[in-house]
Amino acid sequence: MQQEEIQHDRLTGALRRQSVKKNVAAIHVSGKLTLLQRKLSNVLLLNAYDALITKPKHQIDAQTLCLMVGYNSNDMATLKQSLRSLAETTAEWDMLDEEGRQEWGVSSLLSYAKLKSGVCEYAYSPALAEKLHDPKVFALINLNIQRRFTSGHALALYENCYRFVRTGSTGWWPIDLFRRLMGVDGSAYYESFKHLNAKVIKPAVSEVNKTSNILVEPELRKMGRQVSEIRFRIKENPQLAMMNIDDGEGVRQGRVYARLIEVGVSDRLARQWIAEHGEDYVSQKLEYLKGRAGVEHPVRYLSAALRDDYRAEKPPAPRPEVVEAERARRAVQSKAELEAEARGAAVAQGRRIRAAQMARVRELTSARSPTQRDADRRLFLAGVEDEVKRAEFARLGWSAALCVGEMVAFWEDMVPGAFDDLGE
């Protein structure tokens, strides 16, 4: 969870009818979290959500956690530092309880975290867990949307605005509070609204509107000549609204959901995978996993299979009667049909090679340190002249399939022979 101001309307009966203004709960987090630390916080919450108030502690495979967040799977030092930052960060809330009484509280974001035998164990304080589990107070972030963000300021703005999507506006934030929400408080540079607007607000609004399921528009209030407050108008992005997770019961009734649960996938992650990839695709990867005997960590393996589109190396040998039928079909097939089939096969082969190249790019980038990855991105962008491709890479990073040719050339220069085994 990051700094946020969240819509909260828990009054019932007479108290609710007498309420003129909606009761807003302010929950924000001290400290300046990086983009990856923000993503880590959301992944940990997603993993724990189903048992958030019934279990005192939660566990997740450490390498799986790294892969989901975007760390190198073996970079335990970075993971430790990020967990330390979350444990040292405080969350504060101020809200009305069910009976209309004011409640203030403060808690560390994680009460503890530890790594042992390849497993990350962590816990939330009971009071904070209760707030995080209440959908009226806190809304989970779809990881499919989260992974699209390349800026920590943009992700922070999205998280704070997404809480208010149903009301259409964040309400007015004092500009000092907004600086804290964006993690730039304490910086003399951002005391100037001109700098705050140019370097934080405008880029963050642009990225939220391009990459997420909501559209935001800032509005300002001034006191004299100084900007004193800011709010954001919010509406759903019709092009990306489908990326919302279906929280209904329909998915839970399906066979694919049941099979995911059987292999150890959590309820929330199972529904997210189905929403993101579709039941057919997830079912294919479950079948692939079923044929891989001895997999030690099935959830981690399945996550990689979905991400990198694992396929069986060799199809099963066809039965003799199937072979004979195919020969007969080809005997009467016209030359034009054969040529069309060949073209289709060439296209399919091209797609397979491109997918393999993209997977290799991910392997190469994941092996780099965070500092190296930042330098690699800047160096790559400096060599891309096409504005459309530059925009696509700025949005998706090394997952930008539109730039696959340029990325292969870039990494071939960095690591000669890195793609030689993938074919032409």
TrEMBL record:
GO biological process, one term: DNA replication initiation
Domain spans labelled Initiator Rep protein WH1: 20-161
InterPro entries according to UniProt: Initiator_Rep_WH1, WH-like_DNA-bd_sf, WH_DNA-bd_sf
Entry-linked SUPFAM superfamilies: Winged helix' DNA-binding domain (SSF46785)
Superkingdom in the source lineage: Bacteria
GO molecular function, one term: DNA-directed DNA polymerase activity
Family: Belongs to the initiator RepB protein family.
Name of the protein: Initiator Replication protein
Organism of provenance: Roseovarius lutimaris
